[in-house]
Write a structure and sequence with these properties.
heterodimer, A: alpha/beta, 9-stranded mixed β-sheet, 3-stranded mixed β-sheet, B: mainly alpha, 22 helices, globular
C-alpha cells in the first residue's frame, strides 16, 4: 500500500469515525446535563457529597459549584448566571421580587438543605468537660478575660484544674454566616457589638484568613480557642459545653438532633420553606446554622427543569441527606421540613 | 511516492529525474511553477503524514482526556458563537460563564477516568447530539485570546455531540500539522539540512503528537514556535540574496501572528527562537534582512497582529475582577515562597520536566512506558552531547544559548507568578523551547557529514526502527490505559478478550493504521538520509522452478 493510499485511509477513517461517534438516541425523559451553582461556601463539603451521589445515580450529569458567597449566588441566580444558589438564609421578599425577571412570574424560592453546627474548640490537652457561658466567651473575645485560670472560668468549672496560661482566641477574617451565628450567641451574654458576618479588627486574639485555616492554627497554638464547624472539629479537638439557658450542653449528634427535633417549620416568599432549630433557649445544642438552596420556579425548557428537580429532590431526599451526614458531617433539617421542600421542588416546571 | 524530496533539494530545485521534462531556462514561468509545485507538494506530503498521525491520536483518545480539554472546548464553542469577550459580570471564582449547547456544558461529566490510571474510559457517559439547548457553560479559559478557539470551534456550528468534538480535535490537529510541515519544509531548504531534519524528527516525540491532537492552544503554540524558528534559519541563511525565500518569510510571518494571538507567554518563545537563530547566523545577517522591503512589509503586517494580541492582553488584564476567588485546585497560591526561591525550585526541577517532553498523556496521569522514555531520552542526550562538540564553535555556543533559555526562561516566568498563582508550571509548557533546543542541536551538527558506510547505515537503520517502535509502543500503551486501565499486573490480553472501552472504529484498526503511518514516516526519513537505501529489506519471494 502506498503512502498516498494509507494517507487516504486515515482521512477516510477520520471522517467515518467522526460521523460514527454519534451516540444512539437517548430516552427523552433521561436526566442529563450540567448544572451551575454559586453561593455560600459553608455548603461546599455538603455540595461535594451531594454531587458525588447525584452523579452516581444519574450518569450523564455534572455540577459546577463556585463558593463565591450567598449574595453573589442570589445575584447570579436572578441574572440567569446560575441554575441554583446556596444561601445562608431564606429568600427575603425583596429578593423574591428581584427574582421574577430571571425565574418567571412565580419567582424563586428557597428550601433548607442542611444544619451546620458550630462548636467551641479549644487546645488544652489536660482539661476535660470545660463549661463556658456566652458572657464568659464574650469576655474572652473582647480581651477582658486573658488567662485560663481566670476566676470567671474557674467559677463555671469547679474542681477542674485550669492552667495559668494565656487564652488565644482565634477567628477567621472571611465574611461568613458562621461568624454571625457565633456573635449572635455571644450577644445573649456580654457581647456589646451588633452581630455581623465579620469579626471586628479589635477582637482579641489572632486571625486567620478562612475558617478552613482555623483547625491548623488551633493545633499549633497552645491555649487557643475558636468557633469552628462540627465537621472540621471531628475528633481532632475537644469542645466546650455551652449554656443555652437550660444547663450546659455538649455538642454531639444527639443534642444537635434534639435541637432540630424541637425546631419549627415555616414558609416564606414564593412558597419557600423555612426551618429554625430550637436554638438558644431551647432544648438540645442550639448553636447551629440552617443553610438553604434557592431555585427558580420555572426554567427555560423541560430538560433543564427536569435536571434541577432531580438535583433538588436528591439533596432533600434520604440518599442526599445520608450522603451529606456521612461524608460532610452536617445534620439534616427536620423530616417535615424536608418533605415540604421536596413537594415544593416537585413544582419546578418549564417556562411556558 | 516519497514524502521527502530527493538529494539536497533547495528552494524548490528541480529533482534530477524531472529536469529533462521541461525547459531549463532559469527564471522562466515554467521553472518557477515547477519549483513552487514541488515545494507545495512537499509541504502537503509532510503535513499529510503528520496530520494522519495526530488524527489517529485524536480518535484513539477518549473525549476530554486531554489536559483542560473541557474548558478549552467550551471556550471554543462560545467563541465560534460570537462570544469573543466575556460578558460583564460573568466571571466567577470557578471560571467565566458562557452560553453554549448543553452537551458542551456537560463535558466535565466525561472526566470520571481522569487521574485514575486504573479506570478505563468506559465510565464516561455518551455525549448526546440532541442535547443542544443553550445553557451555562463554565470555562477557565475565558480570557484567553480567541483566535485558536474561533477556528477550532467552527465544526460545532454544523455538527453536534461527539462528532462535533472529534471534528474540533481534527481541526486542531490539522493546524498543528500545517505548522510542523512548514517547519520541516524550511529545514529542507537549508544548505546542510540533514542533521536539522534528524533533530526535528527527534523533536516529534509521542507527547508532541499527542498534544497536537487535542483541543488546547498549547499545541498550536508549540507548532508555531517550531515553524518560526525553522523559517528564521532559512531567512538568515539567505539574507544576502536579494529576494527572500518567500515560503520561509510566510512561515515566520504567519507563525508570529499566530503566536501573538495564542497564549500570553507565546511571544516569549518567539523571542527565544529569534535569539537562537541569530546566534547561529549573526546579527549582521539580521540587519541585512531588515534592509529588504519584502521582509519589512511582512514584519509590518505581523506587527499588526502582535498589536492585536497585545491589545487582547491589556483587555484581559483590565477586565473586572471575578466575583469570587478561584478554587484551591486552580489557585494554589503558595504563601511564604519568595520569587527567588521559586526560581531556584524551577532550576531544580529542570530535568523533572523531561518526561513531559517525551510522553505523559491524559491529564498528565499516565506516562508512556519506561522503555520509550529511556530510548527517547537517550536520543535527546546524544544529540545534545554531540552538539556540544560541534564545529564551528559558534554553532556549539548557539546551542548552549537554547539550553540556557530552556532552563532559565520558564524559571523566570514562574518566579514572577509565584505570589499570585503559586506553582503552576508543567513540563508541556516548555515544549516550544524543548523543540528549539533539539533543532538547535541539529543546526549545530549540520556541517558534520553523515557517512554512507555500512556501520552508519546499520546503526541508523536500528535507530530509526527503534524510534518507530517507540512511537507504536507509546500509542498502544496509551490505548491500553483507556481500553482496560493500567493496573498492578500486566493486562494486555484484556484488551483483546475483555476491552472495557473502545475508541471509534475499534482499537485494533486504529493501531494498525498508526503502525502503517509510522512505518511510512520512518521509511521516508531513512530514504531521505540515505538515498537509494531501504529501511527494511523484505526478502523477495522465490519462484518455484
Amino acid at each position: 500500500m502506498t503512502f498516498r493510499g494509507i494517507r487516504s485511509a486515515v482521512a477516510l477513517t477520520a471522517v467515518c469515525a467522526t460521523l460514527a461517534a454519534c451516540s444512539p438516541p437517548a430516552s427523552e425523559s433521561a436526566v442529563r446535563g450540567s448544572l451551575t451553582a454559586i453561593g455560600t461556601g459553608i455548603q461546599s463539603p455538603a455540595i461535594s457529597a451531594w454531587k458525588n451521589g447525584w452523579v452516581k445515580d444519574n450518569p450523564g450529569t455534572s455540577l459546577n459549584f463556585s463558593p463565591d458567597g450567598s449574595a453573589v449566588g442570589t445575584d447570579a441566580l436572578f441574572r440567569g448566571q446560575a441554575h441554583f444558589a446556596t444561601v445562608d438564609a431564606p429568600l427575603t421578599a425583596e429578593e423574591f421580587a428581584r427574582s421574577r425577571e430571571a425565574c418567571g412570574p412565580e419567582g424563586a424560592f428557597s428550601v433548607p438543605v442542611a444544619v451546620i453546627a458550630l462548636g467551641v474548640a479549644f487546645n488544652l490537652p489536660n482539661v476535660k468537660n470545660l463549661k463556658l457561658t456566652p458572657s464568659v466567651l464574650g469576655s474572652i473575645y473582647s480581651g477582658k478575660i486573658t488567662s485560663w485560670d481566670d476566676q470567671g472560668i474557674a467559677d463555671l468549672n469547679p474542681g477542674t484544674e485550669l492552667p495559668d496560661q494565656e487564652i488565644v482566641p482565634v477567628r477567621a477574617e472571611e465574611s461568613s454566616v458562621l461568624t454571625e451565628n457565633a456573635q449572635e450567641y455571644l450577644a445573649t451574654g456580654s457581647w456589646d457589638a451588633e452581630p455581623g458576618m465579620e469579626w471586628s479588627p479589635d477582637t482579641a486574639g489572632e486571625s486567620v484568613s478562612t475558617y478552613a485555616d482555623i483547625a491548623d492554627k488551633l493545633d499549633n497554638t497552645a491555649g487557643s480557642i475558636a468557633f469552628l464547624e462540627k465537621s472540621a472539629i471531628g475528633s481532632r479537638f475537644d469542645t466546650a459545653l455551652l449554656d443555652f439557658g437550660k444547663g450546659f450542653v455538649r455538642m454531639n449528634d444527639d443534642t444537635l438532633n434534639l435541637s432540630i427535633g424541637y425546631g419549627s417549620v415555616g414558609s416564606g416568599p414564593g412558597d419557600s420553606v423555612t426551618f429554625a432549630t430550637a436554638g438558644t433557649g431551647g432544648d438540645g445544642y442550639g448553636l447551629s446554622v440552617v443553610t438553604y438552596q434557592a431555585f427558580c420556579s420555572a426554567y427555560g425548557n423541560e430538560s433543564l427543569a427536569r435536571l434541577v428537580r432531580s438535583w433538588g429532590k436528591f439533596v432533600v431526599g434520604d440518599g442526599g441527606q445520608g450522603n451529606s451526614t456521612y461524608f460532610a458531617g452536617v445534620a439534616s433539617p427536620s423530616k417535615e421540613a424536608l418533605a415540604l421542600a421536596k413537594e415544593r421542588i416537585d413544582e419546578i416546571e418549564a417556562a411556558s | 511516492m516519497s514524502v521527502l524530496p530527493q538529494l539536497n533539494a533547495k528552494n524548490g530545485d528541480l529533482v534530477p529525474e524531472r529536469a529533462d521534462m521541461i525547459s531549463i531556462i532559469p527564471g522562466t514561468p515554467a521553472v518557477q511553477m515547477q519549483r513552487t509545485g514541488a515545494a507545495t507538494g512537499r509541504f502537503f506530503r509532510i503535513a499529510g503524514l503528520l496530520a494522519s498521525l495526530m488524527i489517529l491520536w485524536s480518535l484513539a483518545t477518549p473525549l476530554m482526556a486531554f489536559p483542560d480539554e473541557p474548558a478549552h472546548a467550551i471556550k471554543a464553542a462560545a467563541v465560534s458563537r460570537g462570544q469573543i469577550l466575556p460578558a460583564p459580570e460573568t466571571s466567577f471564582g470557578h471560571g467565566v460563564h458562557v452560553n453554549v449547547p448543553s452537551y458542551f456544558a456537560n463535558l466535565y461529566g466525561q472526566m470520571c477516568f481522569a487521574y485514575r490510571q486504573d479506570t478505563s474510559a468506559k465510565c464516561a457517559p455518551p455525549i448526546q447530539a440532541d442535547d443542544n439547548y443553550l445553557t451555562i457553560g463554565v470555562t477557565t479559559a475565558g480570557y484567553y485570546n480567541p483566535l485558536f478557539y474561533w477556528i477550532v470551534g467552527l465544526p460545532s456550528l454544523v455538527l453536534s455531540g461527539a462528532p462535533a468534538i472529534f471534528a474540533m480535535r481534527i481541526v486542531s490537529a490539522l493546524l498543528s500539522a500545517a505548522f510542523y510541515a512548514a517547519g520541516f519544509c524550511a529545514l529542507l531548504r537549508l544548505r546542510k539540512p540533514k542533521w536539522p531534519v534528524v533533530a526535528a524528527s527527534v523533536g516529534m516525540t509521542p507527547m508532541v503528537l499527542f498534544l497536537a491532537s487535542g483541543i488546547n492552544p498549547n499545541s498550536l503554540e508549540v507548532a508555531a514556535t517550531m515553524a518560526a524558528l525553522c523559517g528564521m534559519f532559512v531567512l538568515l541563511e539567505n539574507a544576502r540574496d536579494q529576494t527572500p525565500v518567500k515560503p520561509a518569510l510566510l512561515t515566520v510571518g504567519i507563525s508570529t501572528a499566530v503566536l501573538a494571538n495564542t497564549r500570553n507567554v507565546s511571544l516569549a518563545w518567539l523571542l527565544v527562537a529569534l535569539v537562537v537563530a541569530v546566534c547561529f547566523y549573526g546579527v549582521g545577517n539580521l540587519f541585512l534582512l531588515f534592509r529588504n522591503r519584502t521582509v519589512l512589509r511582512t514584519i509590518l503586517v505581523a506587527l499588526v497582529f502582535v498589536a492585536v494580541g497585545l491589545v487582547w492582553i491589556v483587555l484581559a488584564f483590565l477586565a473586572p475582577p471575578s466575583a469570587g476567588a478561584p478554587p484551591e485546585v486552580i489557585a494554589r497560591a503558595t504563601t511564604g515562597v519568595r520569587p527567588d526561591q521559586a526560581f531556584l525550585t524551577m532550576l531544580d526541577r529542570s530535568f523533572d520536566f523531561v518526561t513531559q517532553y517525551i510522553g505523559v498523556m491524559g491529564w498528565l496521569d499516565v506516562a508512556v512506558p519506561q522503555a520509550v522514555l529511556l530510548f527517547w531520552g537517550m536520543l535527546v542526550v546524544l544529540l545534545g552531547l554531540m552538539a556540544c562538540l560541534a564545529r564551528p564553535r559558534r554553532s556549539a555556543w548557539a546551542f548552549w544559548v537554547a539550553i540556557i533559555a530552556l532552563i532559565f526562561v520558564p524559571a523566570l516566568i514562574q518566579a514572577g507568578l509565584i505570589s499570585s498563582v503559586g506553582f503552576i508550571w508543567q513540563g508541556r509548557y516548555n515544549l516550544p523551547l524543548f523543540l528549539v533546543v533539539v533543532i538547535a542541536a541539529g543546526m549545530a551538527l549540520r556541517f558534520r557529514k553523515i557517512d554512507c558506510t555500512r556501520a552508519t547505515l546499520s546503526f541508523s537503520r536500528l535507530l530509526v526502527i527503534a524510534a518507530a517502535a517507540a512511537h507504536i509502543y507509546a500509542f498502544m500503551y496509551i490505548l491500553r490505559r483507556y481500553v482496560v486501565g493500567i493496573i498492578h499486573i500486566g493486562n494486555w490480553q484484556s484488551m483483546i478478550l475483555a476491552p472495557g472501552w473502545q475508541p471509534v472504529l475499534g482499537w485494533p484498526f486504529l493501531a494498525l493504521l498508526y503502525t502503517a503511518m509510522v512505518y511510512v514516516g520512518a521509511k521516508a526519513l531513512f530514504g531521505y538520509l540515505f538515498p537509494g537505501e531501504k529501511l527494511l529489506n523484505f526478502p523477495a519471494l522465490r519462484r518455484r522452478p
